[in-house]
Design brief:
142 residues, mainly alpha, 2 domains, two-stranded antiparallel ribbon, 4 helices, 41% helix
Length: 142
């Protein structure tokens, strides 16, 4: 099988190869008759820094808790953060940065912060309420 399961465009960070795959897929739409399978003529290039995942990080089991809809969504959101955490850690290690870090919150706290927008009280960051942060962001920079 030339394409690893879960990687329909080939290896990450190879836009030239990925473009060829997409163009070949779009070319299939020009076929006079449909429903067929066609092999891509090239093998996927080797990756020097390929991370091999031995298991799927996604958990599809459904909980039947007695939670309201918002809490069920929050629990699913927290599970998704946990299951994607290894990929977050790999990205931070490879890139040396994260956009989550610019919030001043850790990855474990960001889910609670986002969820707090559904509550009655405005969430706080570094002891300041949301409206204070917004007003600080609207100040002109010097």
């Amino acid at each position: 099988m030339p394409f690893e399961l879960g990687r329909p465009l080939g290896i990450p960070d190879d836009p030239i190869f990925q473009k060829r795959v997409l163009l070949a897929a779009l070319k299939l739409l020009e076929a006079p008759e449909g429903s067929f399978i066609e092999d891509f003529p090239e093998d996927v290039p080797e990756s020097a820094n390929e991370v091999v995942a031995l298991a799927c990080p996604v958990h599809f089991a459904q909980d039947k808790d007695e939670l309201d809809e918002a809490d069920q969504l929050f629990e699913a959101f927290k599970r998704e953060i946990v299951t994607l955490r290894p990929w977050y850690d790999i990205s931070v290690e490879r890139r040396g940065r994260t956009t989550v870090g610019s919030s001043g919150l850790g990855i474990d706290a960001i889910g609670d912060f986002i969820y707090s927008f559904l509550g009655e009280d405005a969430p706080r960051v570094h002891g300041m309420m949301r409206r204070q942060l917004v007003s600080l962001n609207s100040l002109p920079t010097i």
